[in-house]
Design brief:
The structure holds 2 protein chains of 2 kinds. In chain A, helix 7 crosses helix 8. Chain A has a 7-stranded mixed beta sheet with strand order 8-9-10-7-6-11-12, sandwiched between helices. In chain A, strands 3-2-1-4-5 form a 5-stranded parallel beta sheet, sandwiched between helices. In chain A, strands 13-14 form a two-stranded antiparallel sheet. By secondary structure, chain A is an alpha/beta fold. Chain A is globular, with a radius of gyration of 20 Å. Chain A starts with a helix and ends with a helix. Chain A folds into 2 domains: 148 residues, 3-Layer(aba) Sandwich (Aldehyde Dehydrogenase, Chain A, domain 1); 158 residues, Aldehyde Dehydrogenase, Chain A, domain 2 (3-Layer(aba) Sandwich). By secondary structure, chain B is α/β, with parallel strands linked by helices. In chain B, strand 9 and strand 10 form a beta hairpin. In chain B, helix 1 runs antiparallel to helix 2, helix 1 runs parallel beside helix 4 and helix 7 packs across helix 8. The chains are: A alpha/beta, B alpha/beta. At the A-B interface, helix 9 of A face helix 3, strand 13 and helix 9 of B.
């Protein structure tokens, strides 16, 4: 496993960028590979239980590196894995497979959904319909772990150091161009003016360091719609390739857009909790642990809590959307 | 409930523009009237005021409101709650319903009927609609428009209820027809009808098809649908209509041909990334500028892609590409499904 990880690190600059800028793709890979520490890999190897002999990992239009942690756990326990990508969208698949084979790991690539049908363990990432379809076609007795679309949220309290918080949040926004389920779809704050003021230069700095990649026409249209909403109801700060959309709580829709930060001011932490209650089941990550060791924010109900700047860098050994994935991947 | 000062005069100018342009002699340039309406709208709607980046001095300054905003804010100058007239989008994609708020439908009716009769001069007085009855769906702009087609002497029957095609009622209506009929249908309802037993329409009948298969499942492409309609219903011809809830005016065409809008509706294709107009003949994101949208907004930005030809006709290419480029984050549809309230009503 270490050889595979090290090879991926060594060749990261040659990996497909999958719609991100070269710097953005490198950032995404660095964050994902950063979770594969020697210690984490050793804990995976020491996990009790019997490994499955075969597994299929289905990535339905998720972020390019989403499969990496699953592959690390499965391959690390000796499971032979087939990685199924969307038709015509191999993403990082060929690159991951080539280096896995070179490292002697049993990883194969396909775009055939039938690959999941005779597999005792299936991990599927995609929308609810995809997860449901895979469950329905999996072989009887197969274990299917489904992970649907989610969103994440950051809490930025008035007691946080503004500049450090801004750069940390800008990193979370830049990674995957905000398309990941751990990207901050919304920033809740009791200090909205200060947040907007600090974020503006931070997003510009992030754009300079990790330029935004390709944005699809429909995404541009969605950004313009949110531009209009923010301009009409709150505040719009427009960079060349980023936005701050400050909107009132009544207009919160927790959908992340590329390099856009939705800022919602709340009077109290309790207000923030009430605001997110309708979406509690689809929360992924809450950056409520301040910056590094700074003051913590309220519990907003997400299964994962982290500090600003680490939203897109989850540790390998953790619960994944509330699921103990190390245990789930052994019998 | 009173309209802001200046509305009546603008409405009168639009009526005059409609009548004059249909005679080939509009009383004033399109741009002049569009700017006047937009400037008045900006003065009376804080939403539009926020979107107008510069004073509206020229056509290029007229703001185009993204259709998605109609789902989130009450767009336009009608601030009464509820608005006297509310047309709502279907919401078939599960992402909330846009609301087009009007004070009345006088301009809408005048323009819609006049252009339909110009483009379809043989539009029969008897209409068979594969649509919801406006008595059941008063917020459907499509049903509202089709209800006005028969005029004083014709009739209209409705054959969709709660989204389900009333096949028996449709058969009875056609069996009792004594002359040609005008069949008005969405693409989806027509496909469902053709999926079962059908007979040829009375001689001289027309079939109007509007809309695509957004959010619905069907095995037919548009071209297949038109071909099937011609083969099995044997109409004199099939006509196509392109309209939007957020617009008061419509475009008409024939299968395979570009859509043609009335002189009081202008289409502009823009670069989706920048919003800057692209040269005519080049594909882009479509914006429409509708003089009949006095109560709401002259400019509307759609999510459709098309080519605006040199003569102003529009070839539709479909929806903007890349709505699925979202990674694993929550989609608009998924978020709206859990949203606690609708802010537009």
């Amino acid at each position: 496993m270490r050889a595979w990880r090290d090879a991926l690190r060594a060749h990261a600059d040659g990996a497909p960028t999958v719609g991100l800028s070269a710097q953005g793709a490198r950032l995404a890979l660095d964050l994902s590979l950063g979770a594969l520490t020697d210690d984490a890999l050793a804990r995976v190897a020491a996990q009790g239980g019997e490994a499955f002999d075969r597994a299929t990992v289905i990535t339905a239009r998720t972020v390019a590196t989403a499969s990496l942690e699953w592959l690390a756990v499965l391959l690390g326990r000796g499971t032979a894995v087939t990685l199924k990508h969307p038709t015509g969208l191999p993403g990082l698949g060929p690159w991951l497979v080539d280096h896995a084979i070179a490292a002697g790991l049993p990883l194969a690539l396909t775009d055939d959904r039938a690959a999941a049908r005779d597999t005792p363990l299936v991990i599927v990432m995609g929308d609810d319909a995809t997860v449901r379809a895979v469950r329905e076609t999996a072989e009887p007795g197969a274990r299917v772990l489904g992970f649907g679309h989610r969103f994440s949220v950051a809490w930025w309290g008035a007691d946080l150091p503004a500049d450090a918080a801004a750069d940390a949040l800008a990193l979370d926004v830049a990674a995957h161009d905000t398309r990941g389920c751990m990207s901050p779809a919304v920033v809740l704050t009791d200090a909205a003016d200060a947040v907007v003021a600090a974020l503006t230069p931070a997003l510009e700095r992030a754009q300079g360091r990790w330029p935004r990649g390709h944005v699809a026409p429909a995404e541009h249209a969605a950004i313009r719609t949110r531009d209009a909403l923010a301009a009409a109801t709150g505040q719009l700060v427009r960079g060349e390739a980023w936005r701050i959309h400050r909107v009132p709580a009544s207009h919160l829709v927790p959908v992340a857009l590329p390099r856009c930060v939705q800022v919602v001011g709340v009077a109290t932490p309790a207000h923030a909790q009430a605001l997110l209650a309708p979406w509690a089941e689809v929360l992924s990550t809450q950056a409520t642990a301040g910056v590094a060791a700074g003051p913590r924010g309220p519990d907003l109900g997400a299964p994962r809590t982290c500090a600003l700047g680490t939203m897109q860098a989850p540790p390998l050994v953790r619960h994944h959307d509330g699921v103990d994935h190390l245990r789930a991947m052994v019998r | 409930m009173n309209a802001p000062d200046g509305r009546d005069a603008l409405v009168a100018r639009v009526h005059a523009f409609l009548d004059g342009s249909l005679r080939g002699a509009p009383p004033e340039p399109f741009d002049t009237l569009a700017v006047a309406i937009s400037r008045w709208q900006v003065d009376h709607d804080p939403v539009l005021a926020a979107l107008a980046e510069d004073p509206v001095d020229a056509f290029a300054d007229v703001p185009a409101v993204p259709v998605g905003l109609f789902k989130q804010l009450p767009v336009g100058t009608v601030k009464d709650d509820p608005a006297p007239v509310c047309f709502r989008t279907s919401g078939t994609t599960g992402s909330g319903r846009g609301v087009h708020r009007l004070r009345d439908t006088a301009l809408y009716d005048h323009g819609a009927v006049a252009w339909a009769r110009r483009m379809v001069p043989d539009l029969s007085a008897d209409v068979v609609a594969l649509l919801d009855d406006p008595a059941d769906a008063p917020d459907s702009s499509l049903s509202h428009m089709v209800a006005r087609f028969p005029g004083a002497t014709g009739s209209v029957s409705w054959h969709v209820r709660d989204g389900v095609l009333d096949r028996d009622g449709l058969d009875r209506a056609l069996a009792s027809a004594v002359g040609p009929v005008f069949v008005a249908s969405t693409a989806f309802a027509l496909a469902e009808w053709l999926d079962g037993d059908v007979s040829a329409l009375p001689p001289g009948s027309l079939v109007m098809v509007t809309g695509g298969f957004k959010g619905r499942t069907t095995a037919l492409s548009d071209d297949d649908l038109y071909a099937a309609a011609k083969a099995r219903l044997a109409p004199r011809r099939v006509v196509t209509e392109y309209g939007m809830t957020e617009l008061s005016s419509q475009l008409w065409g024939h299968p395979g041909d570009a859509y043609r809008g009335p002189p009081w509706l202008r289409a502009v294709a823009v670069d989706p990334a920048s919003g800057v107009p692209v040269p005519r003949g080049t594909a882009g994101q479509l914006r429409f500028y509708d003089l009949c949208n006095v109560d709401s907004t002259v400019g509307v930005e759609t999510l459709d892609v098309g080519v605006v030809h040199g003569d102003g006709a529009v070839t539709l290419h479909g929806r903007l590409e890349g709505a699925d480029r979202r990674g694993c984050s929550l989609t608009v549809e998924e978020a709206w499904a859990r949203r606690p309230s609708d802010p537009t009503t």
